[in-house]
Specification:
This protein is mainly α. The chain has one domain. Helix 2 packs antiparallel against helix 5, helix 3 runs antiparallel to helix 6 and helix 4 runs antiparallel to helix 5. The longest helix is centred in the last third of the chain and has 29 residues. The protein is globular and about 50 Å long. 48% of the residues are buried.
């Protein structure tokens, strides 16, 4: 494998983990279901990229049971976000739109940079190509988070954050279900 592919995968794994941490840490004080969903989605991408990096290093490939386990973990994390959405809806909350939009823009920037780095690998049978395919929906998720923050700011309601966060979590659960059932990571990816 090329050294530049390994460097790209390591960098993207590190950046994705950092953004997932920031989104996760700020989700609670921001009162945002969308940020919580984004953090779990980015953790999933970081795990995928880390395994692609391991494969690029020539380490053993991921086993079918570990892919299925990852799908089950996705289902659990998505269900957790759905429970948070229900709690925030019942208890009432007002998310902080500036936090939501700032983290959403940061995640969007990181996703676009990561995607651009991996663009040259998209048609190759390289390990980075799978990371490129996995990263495409993260651009959409980041835009959705920014939209949630903007809608909360414009409407003064928590409903946009709950709808977008709940929708992201539901798609995450569905993807996890497909991955757990098939044992293939690409089974849970749209497009």
């Amino acid at each position: 494998m090329l050294a530049d592919e390994r460097l790209a995968l390591a960098l993207i794994s590190w950046v994705t983990t950092l953004i997932a941490f920031i989104a996760g840490v700020l989700a609670y004080p921001a009162g945002s279901a969308a940020l919580l969903a984004l953090s779990f989605i980015l953790v999933q991408l970081s795990v995928d990229t880390t395994f692609a990096f391991r494969a690029a290093l020539g380490l053993p490939a991921r086993k079918n049971w570990s892919v299925r386990l990852q799908g089950v973990v996705m289902i659990i994390l998505g269900a957790l976000v759905c429970a948070v959405v229900a709690r925030l809806f019942l208890q009432g909350s007002f998310p902080h739109p500036r936090f939501i939009m700032a983290v959403g823009v940061l995640a969007l920037f990181a996703s676009l940079v990561s995607w651009a780095i991996l663009l040259k690998y998209r048609g190759e049978p390289a390990d980075a190509a799978s990371a490129w395919r996995a990263g495409r929906p993260d651009v959409v998720n980041s835009i959705a988070v920014v939209a949630a923050g903007l809608a909360v700011a414009l409407t003064g309601s928590n409903i946009p954050d709950l709808v977008i966060g709940g929708g992201m979590a539901a798609i995450f659960v569905l993807s996890g279900w497909r991955i757990a059932a098939s044992g293939r990571l690409d089974a849970g990816r749209p497009g």
